[in-house]
Task: inverse folding
């Protein structure tokens, strides 16, 4: 494989609209990042959570540095990752700012527990993960936050909330497997065809 040296590459401008359009093809799991302690709490809906390492358990989340969550994560050195279930669309929309809610007002209407780190974790989320900040790498408009997982609360629920083509989509393991089986390619016969 030949790699072109950076100084020989031609810089081309990619529009924000083109980039957003391309990223809409990438299906993302929906999570709510929570930050702060006590009454000084906030959170945001994201699709930018990625596992980094199993040993030690760490993950990465990309957060806009202008978001209200960013200074609280920096100040307290902790954040929560709440992976939403399919029936938690209302939570996703509240934390995305629907209705103009901000800060602690976004937490109303759901049940939360306080993690060891002090961040709120959503009761009933598919998984609620308590993270300690290991490092924040600032690039362009965002901070890439590397979090060491300190505690996990998993539920037995299986239907997840995803985001694809600008819309929330429910992904249910049992229902979707049944639908795929209905439209799948017929199994090969025993004659080896």
Result:
């Amino acid at each position: 494989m030949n790699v072109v040296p950076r100084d020989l590459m031609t810089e081309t401008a990619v529009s924000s609209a083109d980039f957003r359009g391309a990223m809409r093809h990438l299906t993302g799991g929906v999570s709510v990042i929570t930050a702060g302690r006590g009454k000084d709490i906030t959170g945001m809906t994201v699709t930018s959570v990625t596992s980094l390492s199993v040993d030690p358990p760490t993950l990465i989340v990309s957060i806009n540095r202008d978001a209200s969550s960013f200074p609280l994560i920096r100040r307290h050195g902790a954040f929560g990752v709440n992976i939403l279930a399919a029936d938690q669309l209302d939570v996703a929309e509240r934390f995305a700012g629907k209705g103009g809610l901000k800060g602690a007002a976004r937490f109303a209407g759901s049940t939360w527990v306080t993690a060891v780190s002090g961040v709120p974790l959503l009761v009933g989320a598919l998984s609620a993960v308590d993270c300690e900040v290991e490092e924040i790498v600032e690039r362009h408009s965002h901070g890439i936050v590397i979090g060491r997982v300190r505690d996990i609360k998993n539920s037995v629920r299986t239907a997840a909330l995803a985001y694809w083509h600008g819309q929330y989509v429910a992904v249910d393991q049992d229902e979707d497997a049944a639908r795929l089986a209905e439209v799948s390619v017929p199994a090969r016969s025993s004659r080896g065809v």
Remarks:
- The CA atoms of residues 45 and 92 lie 6 Å apart.
- The chain has four helices and twelve strands.
- Helices lie at 16-23, 69-76, 89-95, 173-183.
